[in-house]
UniProtKB/TrEMBL annotation:
Pfam families (UniProt xref): MarR
Protein name: MarR family winged helix-turn-helix transcriptional regulator
Alphabetically ordered keywords of this record: DNA-binding, Transcription, Transcription regulation
Record flagged with keyword Phosphoprotein: no
UniProt-listed PANTHER family: HTH-TYPE TRANSCRIPTIONAL REPRESSOR YETL, TRANSCRIPTIONAL REGULATOR, MARR FAMILY
Domain HTH marR-type span(s) in chain numbering: 1-106
Amino acid sequence: MTSSEINALANLAGVEGRSVSELGAAAGVRPTTLTGVLDRLERRGHITRGTRTGDRRTVLIELTPSGRAAADTIRQAISDLEHRGLADVPPAAVAGFHTVLQALTRACR
């Protein structure tokens, strides 16, 4: 699985579904760039594409059971890595780091 596919699955974990635009914003990727990633994930059976109730123009991306399992594994691996990496960092420093990351994320939009 590519890093782009991992990123997409991680950003679909825990949600009922996202539009391509919403997923692109969450993953930090343009919707047009996501097309190939979503094609590969759909071929592997990890996602489905559908429409949002009441808005047939919006493509809704949802995880399949195998996609949910993969996304859960990815999210757990990320969480474990974060906990190991930040174990010796004081909580105030972690909070400051998250604040900086959020500011950078907003600036890049």
